[in-house]
Design brief:
Length: 351
């Protein structure tokens, strides 16, 4: 029992989390800590998140200590109670095992999910909207908060693109498995001959960066344009230029936000998304450098889809990275994607 508890402790990385808590607590005790309120609030949020993450493991640790003390009494009448305690410890460890897979720096936090229709015209734009609905259903089923920050309607149906903020515990850790090209095969409802069409859509998943010091943005590197938000007509059409488009000149990244009625809110949201995109570029560069050193770097192109959704001539959704598949396509398109997420996380741990 004692040896097993040490092994589990290494996997859960409690020591490193406790060390980080001490560092953040030391920062929070500084006299000038609240002179920059936004940064201070971010640090306090990190502190609260870390404490919440390690609390279940500390409870398990105490249960193990109590069980060892109970066993040391060598009282046969206590065996049923000891067996119950051990069973509870094992069950608790199994429950926490899933969350141990979220070892990334941003896995515990919120995410931005962006969907872009690929080549294929109306069919691909309709497919992008189907994916948008799938992820919104998934978020709703998990009790996560969602906000559509930007949405570009399709020419005839569907959407050209959408950016959604999804807030909740472990959102980024779960959704990072969805990053990549998604392929749909079906009989096209937009084809008069009702022929089979293949459509593609790109899904991007970005962590929401709370710490402004991690990615610094020079205001001189930004071009900010405002314009009137698009609408379907009627009272909801904006009469003022509330929508915001920010171009990061050094990288060419363009971020738009038009959901809020306030130009200031749209500007803040756009800057947050831009910060996340710049962080992604930084992470990719680091990953590519490591992969090249290992001799395993391979550039991923548009055509390399991560998952196929086949509605005709048979029903099947298959993830090409893990081999996980299901014939219940309706359930998947209604947001039941946890099986794909868990298969991906288990594979990552294996690698």
């Amino acid at each position: 029992m004692k040896g097993e508890s040490i092994t589990f402790w290494c996997v859960f990385d409690i020591v490193e989390k406790e060390k980080r808590i001490q560092e953040l607590q030391k920062q929070s005790e500084a006299e000038d800590f609240w002179q920059q309120p936004e940064i201070a609030q971010g640090i306090m949020q990190q502190l609260a998140n870390l404490k919440e993450q390690i609390e279940p493991y500390l409870e398990i640790k105490q249960k193990i200590i109590d069980a060892i003390e109970l066993a040391s009494l060598e009282d046969e009448s206590l065996i049923p109670e000891l067996e119950t305690e051990i069973e509870q410890i094992i069950n608790n460890l199994k429950q926490r095992e899933f969350y141990a897979m979220f070892s990334g720096k941003y896995d515990y936090g919120n995410a931005y999910l962006a969907i872009h229709a690929g080549a294929g015209g109306t069919d691909s734009q309709d497919w992008a909207e189907m994916l948008e609905r799938m992820y919104l259903r998934w978020a709703e089923a998990n009790g996560y908060e969602t906000e559509i920050l930007d949405r570009s309607e399709g020419d005839e149906a569907g959407i050209k693109s959408a950016t959604i903020a999804i807030n909740g515990k472990y959102v980024y850790g779960k959704l990072r498995s969805e990053k990549g090209v998604h392929r749909l095969v079906r009989l096209s409802p937009f084809d008069a001959a009702h022929r089979r069409h293949t459509s593609f859509a790109l899904v991007e998943v970005l962590p929401q960066v709370e710490d402004d010091t991690e990615i610094e943005i020079n205001p001189n590197d930004l071009r900010i344009d405002t314009y009137r938000s698009a609408g379907a007509g009627g009272q909801n059409v904006q009469k003022n230029d509330t929508a915001v488009r920010i171009t990061h000149i050094p990288t060419g990244i363009v971020v738009t936000c038009q959901n809020e009625r306030s130009q200031t809110q749209n500007r803040e949201n756009a800057l947050r998304v831009l910060r996340s995109r710049l962080l992604e570029i930084k992470q990719k560069e680091q990953e590519e450098q490591i992969a090249q050193l290992r001799g395993e770097f391979q550039k991923v192109e548009w055509g390399s889809q991560i998952r196929s959704y086949v509605l005709h001539p048979y029903q099947m959704v298959k993830d090409h990275r893990t081999g996980y598949e299901t014939g219940n396509t309706t359930a998947v398109l209604n947001g039941e994607i946890d099986g794909f997420i868990e298969a991906y996380l288990h594979q990552q741990i294996g690698e």
